[in-house]
Write a structure and sequence with these properties.
This protein has 243 residues and is α+β, with helices and mostly antiparallel strands. The protein is built from four helices and 14 strands. It has a six-stranded mixed beta sheet with strand order 3-4-2-1-14-13.
């Protein structure tokens, strides 16, 4: 892979890791870490992350992946699971200045979901990175409510550049994605061919996305092949002219 030469360029990955369980049924964090490192990712939004849960050998997945990739980490617990915690994680090569986890307002959801947010320092400027996993059972009313909470959170950072990653459990033509595109740039729009990020037997489509505030430029986007999860990681390369 071509090495970055412009340090204002950031590589953002979103990846639902399926609690570390691959298509072969084995839990293996080493191959996930290798994928992150080989992609030269600077910011990584991870969904379906376990901490100390019985089903995943009581591994502290976010700390283990941070160690394997030599990255800073943050975790947002959304619910307890099998004597452990379950939620979203963030890995970043940049120092974390601030972090918080917002739980979405639940109307008909089957389980609690959240929006993990960190402020990171890049070249003496603060950038906001958000990561989420939207419930696949949502109707339009609740999914639009989630978008409103994402929008409100982004606006609360006083004009700081924003990057949003996540498993939105929605296809590109869905109403939620259209609502996101009113306020944010959908990185997948940088290419014309379909982007496939989920490959179950009955769903082969894009449900994972990277969005940015409108002060970013999308340089490229790609999907990486791996058997490490039932999702495929989406990587967007983005840049800002003045940082």
């Amino acid at each position: 892979m071509k090495k970055k030469t412009d340090n204002t360029t950031i590589r953002v990955m979103t990846y639902n890791i399926h609690h570390g369980e691959g298509m072969d049924g084995h839990i293996n964090l080493d191959r996930i870490a290798t994928l992150i490192s080989s992609a030269n990712a600077d910011l990584v939004g991870l969904q379906e992350v376990d901490r100390h849960a019985d089903r995943s050998h009581n591994l502290d997945m976010i700390k283990a992946l941070a160690h394997l990739t030599s990255m800073h980490w943050a975790f947002g617990k959304n619910l307890g699971l099998q004597n452990g915690d379950y939620g979203n994680g963030i890995l970043t090569r940049f120092p974390i200045v601030h972090q918080e986890n917002l739980h979405y307002k639940m109307v008909k959801s089957s389980e609690r979901r959240g929006l993990l947010q960190v402020v990171i320092g890049i070249k003496n400027r603060e950038i906001v990175f958000m990561n989420t996993h939207i419930d696949h059972c949502l109707d339009n009313a609740e999914s639009i409510s989630n978008v409103k909470q994402i929008r409100a959170s982004a606006n609360s950072y006083d004009g700081k550049p924003v990057i949003i990653s996540g498993d939105f459990n929605e296809t590109p033509k869905g109403q939620m994605i259209k609502e996101m595109e009113l306020d944010f740039i959908n990185a997948s729009g940088a290419i014309s061919q379909p982007v496939l990020t989920h490959r179950s037997t009955n769903l082969k489509t894009q449900i994972d996305y990277v969005f940015t505030s409108k002060d970013w430029t999308i340089r490229s986007i790609e999907v990486l092949y791996s058997l490490a999860s039932d999702h495929l990681p989406l990587v967007a390369e983005i840049s800002m002219d003045k940082m």
